[in-house]
Amino acid sequence: MTAWRTEGGSAIDRARSLRFTFDGRVIEGFAGDTVASALLAGGVSVLGRSFKYHRPRGLWGAGVEEPNALVDIAGDMPNTRATQALAVDGMAVRSVNADPSAEKDRHAFLDAFARFIPAAFYYKTFMVPDWHSFEPRIRQMAGLGVLDEAIQSPAFAEQINHHCDVLVVGAGPAGLLAARTAQRAGKRVLLCDDGRQVGGSLLFREGAIEGKAGADWAADVAAELAEAGALVLTGTTAFGIYDHHLVGLNQKGADGAPDRLWRVRSTSIVLATGAIERPLPFSNNDLPGIMSAEAALVYLRRFGIVAGRKVMIATNNGLAYETAQALAAAGADVTVVDYRADVPAPAGLRVLKGRTIVSATGRGAVNAVKLSDGSVLETDAVLASGGFTPSVHLYCQAQGKLDWRDDILAFVPGRPVDGVDVVGAAAGDFKLPAEIGATEGREFGIVAAWPKPNSKERVWIDLQNDVTAKDVELAVRENFVSVEHLKRYTTLGMATDQGKTSNVNGLALMAELTGRRIPEVGTTTYRPPFTPVPLASFAGARSGTRMKPLRRLPLEQQHRADGAVFRDYGGWLRPAYYGDGAPDERIQAEARAARNGVALFDGSPLGKIEVIGPDAAPFLDFIYYNTMSTLAPGRCRYGFILTEGGNVYDDGVLVRLDENRFVVSCSSSHVAGVHGLLEEWRQDRFDKRRIFIHNATAEMATLTVTGPKARALMEVLDLGIALDDTALPHMAVVSGVFEGVALRIARISFTGERSYEISVPADRAVALWARLRQAGEAFGARLLGLEALMILRAEKGYIVIGKDTDGTSRPMDFGLTAPLERKKVEFIGRRSLLTEDAALADRRQFVGLEAIDDKGLLPTGAHGIEPSSAGLRSTGYVTSSYFSPALQKPIALGLIERGLSRMGEVIELQHLRQIRRARIVSACAFDEEGSRLHA
Amino acid sequence: MLDLSRTWRPEPDWAEAHLTGPDITIRAITGLTQRLVSGDLGRFLARYDLGGDVGGLAVASGERYAVRLARDRMLAIGLAPGECADGWHEEGYAVTTVGAGQRVLEMRGEGLRNLLGRAVTVDPDRAGPSAAIPFGGVTCAVYFHEGPHALRVHVERGLAAFLWEWLECQPLLSEKQVFKA
Questions:
Q1: Per-residue model confidence as pLDDT tens digits over A445-456
Q2: Which residues in chain A (605-664) have CB-CB distances under 8 A to chain B?
Q3: Does some domain include residue A531?
């Protein structure tokens, strides 16, 4: 292709030149040029290498439909369409899938082996000895652009939610007219277009509207809309229509700014999304220098570039003639090959009627074409027009169904969709709106020019995914004849261009091969996005730490000041341990302090869900596995909450404050789930006027004092309560006061030591914690982090939901059978506990495991093993494993088949091919009588 | 061991923290007593002379008011400590004090509508009867106070730091010229 810059070009500013590099070569252009237009004007004919065969590829289009010219721009996104990227002075652009350059690619030899790597070859090869041997290399070779890992953009895409009466997608003539009509009717209008300027085809095609040149009319309408308060967004792609007609827009950032995502909810949507020109099928139709005829017109009128010196325009319809005449007027030597036999030839143009292009030739670029009459014509640019495919993607995403029109050889919107109108070329109407006096000289008059089977050479259907007509024939031979199979087997339409220029040609060939009409083959499902949308647009502000926000403790500042090492526990940022030094040593020391003296622990995330009302007690009898209605006010009881399948969902302590008020103290990571469960059953099964659920977890901070010296410390605090065991026995709760503020003190223990959980309003936590720290000094009180707490509870055999239970664990697996046997009322999961599965003898039961092989800790997750006829069989696994500071030896917990009836038995465990031996013991390894609770 | 204290910024000093943009200012306010009330809301409103309750993005007035969260749930603001006990009331409603568990952010300025366009998906002109609205991705109680230029957002205390960070990174709250819808 020997394109050259001429006069004119409405999009560029010739007073501002610029330079950038492409594959290291300096390219000159003007402000307003796209990377593609500058490359075209600069005589670059090879812009990239094809995906599979590394064939040289040139520019095809001028917009979103471009299948070949993908580039990586240094410091920016990979796989950018050169047709949409603005050229910027100093930018460094590289071709993709080419090494070292598009012009000279070291993998070009692959094309010589094309016959051995047709569509779907990878389903039949690379199997010996093992697919995984080949996978890394194949993955390396697949793909196009390369992520620049040096990019660390701090910016994110803003996300805006917008509501309006009418959303118009597409600011060409039909869209502008629709927007103006709606605006004049007093509607709130949003008009968007993916171009940098409104106008669509009016920017490069001739035509008059309301007595004005098309481009002038477009500018006037845009001004009127803006003046009237309509929102007009350019550089903005409507990429998808979702449920309830939510529309996603991606607005390109200007001057290096990040993109912006719009979520638009509109009463009605007008789709004026235009149509995309199709290629023509002939042998070697992928050579550089073969371009869309309409794109050539865009490059001439918008960028002042003539596509070639000796131009061949091949067309099966009338719309390409404007390109022919414009290029001829610009000085190109133009020949039109019109596939239609009976058409008037415009004066001044050489037109070869009733002929087709059979093949193109050239090495690295087209240099000649062979016609159906046997003649060979030299050319340096072939501009092809194989018809137009309306862009119906958004209509189909809105559940619209397509019809086929034989008169324009295209799929168009069929039955109406409520709230969605399709207008203009998107509806198959390729003329300017007649109702506003538009005039133009176009007649469409298309004839079929579909790919034919049995071509000798390769006819390219999907340029971006390297799919040829032979691949479609192969799919048919292998009986992949449905359109969905055709797509997946050949990858036709699966590239980043999503088949914008290839789908219909592929369907047409499939139709011929299978004796069907094109509408009988149909189309695949249209899914968002219409064009690639940066992940950053979807992420918005939810990136980095904002992606998954952790809840913060009221005492976080204090813990930081005390040198806490923080981790994520159940969605909260909590201290794992405190201080510098080896973590294991710190954690062991904290656990020892709790066993030997007193420790302070921040248990604020513990669930505190209030159940309030006269029916709260029977409600909780239904919720819990255990009977709870007999719990007296001021008392606490440990219990399980099951799923309807009878599996342990959560455990925790229920606190009864008074006759009608309970606090469900559930696992801190499970608060939302338990809250939802409570609310669901309240609404479904009980009188909603007599039970209410209030999640007060955030309201109260829970500060725990634990250890043999806990009571002594509590006495110094003077919280206005009696601390003797009669007034406050284990599993009881009382009210106290701290600096005039009411608080709750419960004797509940997760460490196995005497413990006091003090629940105080969160805004008083700092003061109380300071008091505890100050008073604790006299007792050597130590701060206790989560890691030490996990050891302490494991020494006691206390379970952690989700760690010592799995999705199949039932209460009897933990030895808790009494409620099932004795509880009279219905409760969640009861019936499932009566199933055969629940009564199976070989259920995995919760036990302790004592390592007896002097190899240290048993690995968490190690499986108990037993030989079977099919090899080794898992009999359960280790759920928790720690070094016990109290016992000075490893301890572990696990779920082992029939564990409760196998006490003392030695079993084998396997982990990463290592065999361990352990004895099944009681889960409680320390203070089995529980005397330390009252110490 | 991985230490997330470096990954997560400390919470701001809520007494001092403020965000200022060209036409928005945001700060945390304190001193609002808040009670979660469920049940016969009409009786509660009458009993404590709160008038009616306000819904999503509606305007509340005065020091004592109620904000509707669900069909049978609302947030009562401004009752004196001790004025209403926690727990079940025979008139048919349940009460829980929640003021310590909520951080209240007040946003003021001409740019509130633009901020709402970033923060909520509901139509500001038709927000609906519930003030429990996802704001910046977190369900909060969101309403105006004393007019359209003061927005109050009640966010769970533990998630306030996240919401503050989310607000901080919005271009509306930077000095640069930003897009205004």
A1: 999 999 999 988
A2: 605, 610, 612-614, 616, 657-658, 660-661
A3: no
Whichever domain contains A665, its CATH number is 3.30.70.1400
Would you place residue A919 in the very low, low, confident or very high pLDDT band (cuts 50, 70, 90)?
A: very high
Whose CA is closest to A381, among A830, A811, A677, A3? A3
Place of tokens 């950053």: A536
Q: Where are the domains of chain B?
A: 18-31+102-173, 34-99
For residue range A343-396, list pLDDT tens digits in order. Answer: 888 888 999 999 999 999 998 899 999 999 999 999 999 999 999 999 999 999
CB pairs under 8 A between A and B: 147
Chain B residues touching A698 at Cβ < 8 A: 98, 100-102, 156-158
Domain extent at residue A714: 554-605+699-793
Query: B143 vs chain A: nearest CA distance in angstroms?
Result: 18
The DSSP element (H or E) to which A394 belongs, if any, is: helix A393-397
**How close, in Å, is residue B162 to chain A by CA atoms?**
6
A199 assigned to some structural domain = yes
- Specify the 3-state DSSP secondary structure of A703: strand
Q: Is A694 on the interface with B (CB under 8 A)?
A: yes
> Do the domain assignments include residue A771?
yes
Whether residue A590 is found in the same domain as residue A731 = yes
pLDDT of residue A456: 86
Please give the full DSSP string across B1-25, using - where no structure is assigned.
---TTTTSPPPP-TTT-EEEETTEE
Q: Burial of A927 by CB count in 10 Å (0-12 exposed, 13-18 middle, 19+ buried)?
A: middle
- Architecture of the structural domain at B18-31+102-173: 2-Layer Sandwich (3.30)
pLDDT for A118: 87
Q: Do A552 and B11 touch (CB under 8 A)?
A: yes
Q: How confident is the model at residue A154 (pLDDT cuts 50, 70, 90)?
A: low
Chain-chain contact of A158 with B97 (C-beta, under 8 angstroms)? no
A630: DSSP letter: T
Cβ(A489)–Cβ(A53) below 8 Å? no
How distant is the Cα of B121 from the closest Cα of chain A, in angstroms? 6
Is A549–B162 a contact, with Cβ atoms under 8 angstroms apart?
Answer: yes
Reply yes or no on whether the pLDDT at A442 is more than 90: no
Residue A79 confidence (pLDDT): 86
Same domain, A784 and A818: no
Chain A contacts in chain B segment 14-33 (CB below 8 A)? none
B166 touches chain A (CB under 8 A): yes
pLDDT tens track for B35-48: 999 999 999 999 99
What CA–CA distance (Å, rounded) separates A90 from A664?
Answer: 64
* Pair (A319, A406) in one structural domain: no
Chain segment A669-702, per-residue pLDDT in tens: 999 999 999 999 999 999 999 999 999 999 999 9
Q: Which of residues 100-159 of B touch A (CB under 8 A)?
A: 100-102, 117-118, 120-121, 123-125, 136-138, 156-159
Instruction: Give the residue from B3, B43, B116 with the most A CB atoms within 10 Å of its CB, the best one to mutate.
Output: B3
Chain B, 65 to 104: residues with Cβ < 8 Å from chain A are 72, 86-88, 92-94, 96-102
pLDDT tens-place values along chain B, 181 residues long = 789 998 999 999 999 999 999 999 999 999 999 999 999 999 999 999 998 999 999 999 999 999 999 999 999 999 998 899 999 999 999 999 999 999 999 999 999 999 999 999 999 999 999 999 999 999 999 999 999 999 999 999 999 999 999 999 998 987 554 555 5
Task: For residue A564, list chain B residues with Cβ-Cβ distance below 8 A.
Answer: 5
* Alpha carbons A316 and A339: distance in angstroms, whole number: 5
**Domains of chain A: total:** 6
Is the peptide bond between A867 and the residue preceding it cis, with omega within 30 degrees of 0? no
Q: In whole angstroms, what is the distance from residue A707 CA to residue A713 CA?
A: 10
Q: How far is CA A784 from CA A44, A364, A473, A587, B66, in A?
A: 68, 72, 70, 8, 41
| Shared domain check, A915 and A806 | yes
Beta-carbon count within 10 A of A216 CB = 15
